[in-house]
Specification:
Belongs to the DNA photolyase class-1 family. By secondary structure, the chain is mainly alpha-helical. It has a domain of 107 residues: Alpha Horseshoe (Serine Threonine Protein Phosphatase 5, Tetratricopeptide repeat). The chain is built from 30 helices and five strands. A five-stranded parallel beta sheet has the order 3-2-1-4-5, with helices on both faces. It is globular and about 75 Å long. The two termini are 41 Å apart. Bound molecules: flavin-adenine dinucleotide.
Length: 630
């Protein structure tokens, strides 16, 4: 997501960059490509990623002494494993960044990609406004796979209508992006099924949907420009994605387009409140959810337009179908080879996750009618369906978060956002978490570069125990609630939120595995995988993110299990080996007298002991932060 940052930034037209920014880019460019030396100590640590159960004295000392040395001398984050096929695919991304560079992003010394994009949008507005309509307008679909309530699409449709020319829609299938972003095959399949639905809906409006598979992600801008030339398109619209590479690509494309007298306009749509709009009393961005949410509610209330819907496009002018015949005849490509599902899996996923915006709206309305009022009381219970299960729709954009909040608000007492019926206001505040994590990503873009939000936590020494990691992914840790959740993920490509927190805490605190391994695995599995929410959730659970709670909040899997799955209904569903275990033993069969049933059915004993793990985690976190561990 951030690979192209140097190249693309350097392509940004100098006229649109302030002198302070160009100075920063010059320095940035230099330091970015300067050889990054990995200190001898870091290399040694990397080689010695031993699987000690309790933090050894030497590991404490090495982490502690590292923490106390100068920040600017820290070229890698702790003992994080950066080899191929690990937490980052180095074929797509440059070497790890330093804590010093994180500080430069924090202070604004290095311009944030979203701010650069905003500057370019502002500085080129006049020139873009002067572009005369061509023979068609283009909407470039990304994670906004719907016709209704879509800001970018609606602007494109208005432009086309005012010039009485047709609207063309485009979606690019990018196998390299899927690879670089660890997109799950189930997610790719969901998107392709959604495109089939959209193609029909757009077809009924005489609007062609071009779905092109482009092998090399770098070739995407060139393809768009060629398409424009071929169909004499002079206006392009898209909705903004907030990951670094995407922001930088759009910034570069605005200028490339203008060079060819094409106006390219990226707009905010994926979030209800645009990142950067909310500031604390001292002019800073919020890093804590609760005050951020208060400010979000105030902002949305004061700007009611933010929740107003955008109409879906009208019909293309007659003649569009003939003029663009070749585009209408194109079909949706199959999933790329690296993301193919088996025939059986494809069928199963289609039944489990029907695609498209009609399905999304049906689900939303059913949830609002039947479950939203009980949401506040039930949402933490993973058994049954207690939440909306709309995340796949929010993250692919088959449903706008704006639509969800508006529809929920409209059925609340006096249309409150954060008051009135508890279930409704609680649900709205959950949807707002999406916005929050995208605000975090936009303001602290280094979280997109495999650095923790609290980058001072980057010196924690993690375990890289492959066996533990595999048992975690397979749901064979001997902790029933963890195993049930991990099996739900493998089977449904979805996991309940409470369980996501439990398994993430277990991975990072009990197993002390690098939380980024879990983050990556989730993206490889989840149908609703979303970089900002996933990174935010993992950071929160590993205490390296925006959670104001300190690292010593460590979930006890047994207590979580007893509290949120009291009757073991969820465990019995996903861990059938334990279905005959009675009463409270379901939460800990080997510790509560159900060892015979568990052993007979092949259910494993716990792979670690929580109390010891807790101590080890505390000690390792402390050492990583350079605190006294004696
Ligand atoms: C470790 C971890 C990883 C996560 N990874 C993802 C991810 O990749 N994609 C994703 O969409 N969500 C992620 N979440 C957030 C959350 O778990 C899911 O959004 C939620 O479980 C989806 O179920 P639902 O649609 O029934 O949610 P509901 O409870 O019905 O909530 C409504 C909507 O609000 C949003 N939402 C709810 N909780 C959160 C949250 N904590 N953070 C951000 N948005 C939220 C979702 O869009 C959701 O559809 C993660 C959470 C954790 C702890």
């Amino acid at each position: 997501m951030w690979k192209a940052c140097f190249m693309q930034t350097s392509l940004v037209s100098r006229s649109s960059i302030t002198s302070r920014q160009s100075r920063t880019i010059a320095t940035t460019t230099k330091s970015y490509y300067a050889p990054i030396t990995i200190s001898a100590m870091a290399l040694k640590r990397k080689a010695a990623t031993s699987v000690s159960f309790t933090a050894s004295k030497s590991s404490k000392t090495s982490a502690a002494s590292q923490a106390s040395s100068s920040k600017s001398e820290q070229p890698v984050n702790g003992n994080a494993r950066h080899d191929a096929n690990s937490i980052i695919d180095r074929r797509f991304y440059p070497p790890p960044m330093t804590n010093e560079r994180c500080e430069q992003y924090k202070s604004g010394e290095i311009p944030r990609p979203l701010e650069t994009l905003h500057d370019i949008i502002r500085d080129t507005k006049q020139a873009r406004d002067q572009v005369k309509p061509g023979k068609a307008v283009l909407h470039w679909y990304k994670r906004d796979l719907r016709l209704f309530d879509n800001r970018g699409l609606s602007m494109a449709a208005d432009k086309a209508k005012s010039a009485n020319i047709p609207l063309i829609c485009l979606y690019i299938v990018s196998p390299q992006d899927y690879q670089a972003h660890f997109t799950s095959p189930a997610r790719v399949d969901f998107e392709l099924r959604t495109l089939e639905v959209m193609k029909k809906d757009l077809d009924a409006l005489d609007i062609p949907l071009v779905v092109e598979s482009i092998d090399r992600r770098k070739a995407v801008p060139g393809f768009i420009l060629d398409l424009c030339e071929k169909h004499q398109i002079r206006h392009i619209y898209c909705n903004i994605e907030y990951e670094v590479d995407e922001l930088r690509r759009e910034a570069m494309l605005i200028n490339k387009c203008l060079d060819k007298d094409i106006s390219f306009t990226p707009v905010h749509d994926d979030v209800i409140v645009a990142p950067g709009s909310l500031e604390t009393g001292t002019g800073n961005q919020y890093a804590v959810y609760t005050p951020w949410f208060r400010s979000w509610v105030k902002h949305v209330t004061q700007n009611p337009d933010l929740l107003e819907p955008s109409e879906k496009p009208g019909k293309n002018p007659s003649g569009a179908r003939n003029a663009l015949k070749a585009l209408f005849e194109r079909s949706i490509p199959p999933a790329p080879a690296n993301k193919l599902l088996s025939k059986e899996e494809k069928k199963r996923m289609a039944e489990l996750w029907p695609a498209g915006e009609h399905e999304a709206n049906l689900r939303l309305n059913k949830f609002i009618k039947e479950r939203i009022e009980g949401y506040s009381d039930n949402r933490n219970i993973p058994a049954g369906t207690t939440t909306s299960v709309l995340s796949v729709h929010h993250s692919t954009g088959t449903l706008a978060a704006r639509t969800s909040v508006r529809v929920a608000r409209n059925v609340n007492t006096r249309q409150y956002l954060n008051d009135g019926k508890k279930g409704i206001s609680t649900w709205i505040s959950e949807v707002a978490w999406r916005d929050f994590y995208k605000h975090v990503l936009a303001h602290w873009p280094y979280v997109c570069m495999y650095m923790p939000f609290k980058h001072e936590y980057s010196l924690i020494e993690w375990e890289y125990n492959d066996e533990h990691f595999e048992l975690w992914t397979d749901g064979m840790t001997g902790f029933p609630i963890v195993d049930a959740a991990m099996r739900q993920l493998k089977s449904m490509k979805y996991m309940h939120n409470r369980c996501r927190m439990i398994v993430a805490s277990f991975l990072a605190k009990d197993l002390l595995l690098d939380w980024r391994l879990g983050e990556k695995y989730f993206m490889e599995q989840l149908i609703d995988g979303d970089f900002a929410s996933n990174n935010g959730g993992w950071g929160f659970s590993a205490s390296t993110g925006v959670d104001p709670q300190p690292y010593f909040r460590i979930f006890n899997p047994l207590l979580q299990s007893e509290k949120f799955d009291p009757d073991g209904e969820y465990i019995r569903k996903w861990v059938p080996e334990l279905k005959d275990v009675q009463g409270k033993a379901i939460h800990d069969p080997y510790g509560r007298g159900a060892n015979k049933i568990a052993a007979k059915s092949g259910y494993p004993k716990p792979i670690v002991e929580h109390k010891q793990c807790r101590e080890r985690a505390l000690s390792r976190y402390k050492a990583g932060l350079g605190k006294d561990t004696s």
